[in-house]
Amino acid sequence: xxxxxxxxxxxxxATVLGCSVVSSSKTTDVSESMPSAExxxxxxxxxxxxxxxxxxxxxxxxxxxxxKGVTDAKSGYAGGTAKTANYDTVSEGSSxxxxxxxxxxxxxxxxxxxxxxxxxxxxxxxTELNRQGPDTGPQYRSAIFFxxxxxxxxxxxxxxxxxxxxxxxxxxxxxxxPLEKFYDAEAYHQNYLVKNPTQPYIxxxxxxxxxxxxKKFPDLYVAKK
Length: 225
Fold this sequence. Notes:
By secondary structure, the chain is an alpha+beta fold. 38% of the residues lie in helices and 19% in strands.
């Protein structure tokens, strides 16, 4: 009985507390990362980049970094300015940033369309406007930040197809907008799920995404070491 009560308390806390409860001890600016430089560096290695926002970046990052062909997934902030690109300020919801993940991938092993499929199937709920689960505010909005016209057309067509087929019971509210700048999140956010597998929020909201990924995309799933 005591174990049952502890589990119930654990899950209730995880449900109430959101992604923004983990905060740095002080507010610091994050070094600016120019997307053009990241895209250029990836292109030189035959790789490509894609940026997705789908609520708290911990789970989104964990999903994408568990995919075959993805060489890196990094949490950060898309939109807004460098001055306010820090976790404490972004969590207030007025900085215009979205918690996002920049994904570097090998198109010979995984396509952009497959990344979109994973994003809309297991990484988040694209019908929730300015929120995901217990996290509310525009910083948790659903968005695709495209790096070129091909990504823009592919994302727009993908969303139109999902809506036409009524894959989701409600209309998809995902924004498709150009990537202007991407700012790396603080170091303690990177690879957060792997480092904190027993954290209540992770257990309640993010580990289920990985289980869903294993079931629905077994050919793409690669366990994070």
